[in-house]
Predict the 3D structure of the following.
Amino acid sequence: VLLHRLANFQRVWSLPPNENTGKEVTALAWRPDGKILAFGLTDTKRIILCDVEKPESLHSFSVDSSITYMHWMEVTEESSVLTSFYNAEDESNLLLPKLPALPKNYSTTAKIFSEEKSDEIMKLLGDVRLNALVLGGSSGFIEIYAYGMFKIATVTGVAGSCRGLCLSSDLKSLSVITEIRDSSDSEAEITYFQASKLDTSLLSSYLPEVTRMARKFTHISTLLQYIKLSLTCMCEAWEEILMQMDSRLTKFVQEKNTTTSVQDEFMQLLLWGKASLELQALLMNQLTVKGLKKLGQSIESSYSSIQKLVISHLQSGSEALLYHLSELKGMALWKQKYESLGLDASGIEEAITAVGSFILKANELLQVIDSSMKNFKAFFRWLYVAMLRMSEDHVLPELNKMTQKDITFVADFLTEHFNEAPELYSRKGKYFNVERVGQYLKDEDDDLVSPPNTEGNQWFNFLKNSTHLKESPLLFPYYPEKSLHFVKRQMEGVIDQCLQKPADVIGKSVHQAVCMSLYKTSQSEDSTPQLFKLPFLWNDKTSNIHYVLFTILENSISKIYILRRHTDTSRSVSNGILAVEFGNFLNSGINESSDSRCYSCLDAHFYDDETVTVVLKESMEQEGKERVLAQLPLSSVYTDEDQDREFIWDSTKRLDEQSGEISTRTVFLDNQWRVLENMKAQYVAVNGIRKVSCVLSSNLRHVRVFEMDVEDDGEVEEEEEEETS
């Protein structure tokens, strides 16, 4: 994906294909505010939301089908209920502490949450006003994502692979153009579907509720991402060096030829101050005084980093998640508003419980870190002195002081952590598990190697003996055997499950209102790469009309057809379909009398609600005949005199089989055109708000940008520059 500035074609950034995101981009869409670009990848079936300023993925998710078309629209509806919601959006910011930014010194995964100054999260959430990313894919796959992040509808019942989509800004109607291929037939059939919702359309009639629910869901998705990244940082803070103790001791067991256990060897050193020759060799030659110091420092710095991350990031993220889920549960219990959207209180209750279990697990990790830090400190301090004595170095008097309490402490540590465990060797290839924190951060389904010891814990005993509390919904279930990663995955699964239901419910409420078979695609004679720009869909927001532009080839002339449908399917628009052909306006003097129809339309695009931009070529194309970029005003197409000739659609036939009955307009353009010199133009993309058109050549190598509204000595458009790749 390459992003260029329009003014001077300066490259802003490029995002090369990579293993994580994918290699084949098939669809792009801008968020209506222009701050985020979404693109769909076919090979990995992922959607990436990317920041406009720098090529960083702010959010990504997987879909079930390869995406062929994307459309990102914004709701323009206004109502007092919505306005009050837009204003109340910040109440969670008042109640919840701001999420601390993740530390910068970890890998790139955490960039989105790390820059202290910019609120990347808020950039990702964008404006409160509802916007929706509509995805269309192969085999009838259509999904709608609120704010580009949270799935609010899965639409079923549309056949074929999607070539165009348009959701009206009042959310009443979704238009889809698909391509249906018969296995026997090499030519595909293009079909227009207009789907509208049942009962005055679920999405538009529940707009405030849908907006509020989607907004909550988006908060929840960002928090899950935040928790995931915090965990990634914790895994990075835990270093491999911490495994040294386990591996050295295991090696020692394998190589020693005495019968005393490792635990006893260390105990003897603790009690008599004398070590066997083997232990001496292990400590002095393999571990060394310097190595011991380094190991001690690593453990301390690593543990305290992990501890900080748990306290400030993991816990605050989980608490915010708990807050939003509880609010969502409150919404689900307001049945007359949210039940028909598929919000289910019992599912959300389960999600809250899962978050509770995650918080418990994080607390357990904190306790393990705390006790490990104390134990290791005492153990290393004692071992350091013992090793100094072995090497007959001078021992500082303040290091030499060791109270009875310290000795007991080290002895307990040895008893608990230095047991040889042959069954562990078969599982993990080591006999010891002295280092207890790493097991919580491993992303595997195995149980913990050394789960915390809960014997003698009064609360556990109390729970065990109480019949009423065992099944109480108020107590979060506790998984003593499982790692933090496991509990996190379980939590994500439960939350996804409970947020999945509205998408199915809303999707099922969508039903098909109209299905028209438009035309068969002709296999292109020349080998120009097919970009599939036409048919083109446009939604006129002010009058709620969908337009479809497409061309049908007849007698070697491509006429352009304009189909109008009202988004409210019960109302029809007069002149549902018209054909437009272009008369000769390049007063060249040659064969002027012979045929007035002499232009074929190559591509067409709505410039704004009143104008269509087209690329034309002369039908009798000879060498040296140039292609033309022109503006077609709709007012010249829809005139009042033809109200009487209404086209009667025969739904059993394709449109191209009944094109003879469709009334045709011949349009002569006065001055709204320009010849495209030295360029075999084929495709056009326009932006009416910024008043520009981009023309792309048929070999997809040349782009020209035009300013469309420049008044300059009789020349309507002014060429800005030509860019050749």
Observations:
- Confidence is low (pLDDT under 50) at residues 195-200, 525-530, 589-594, 713-725.
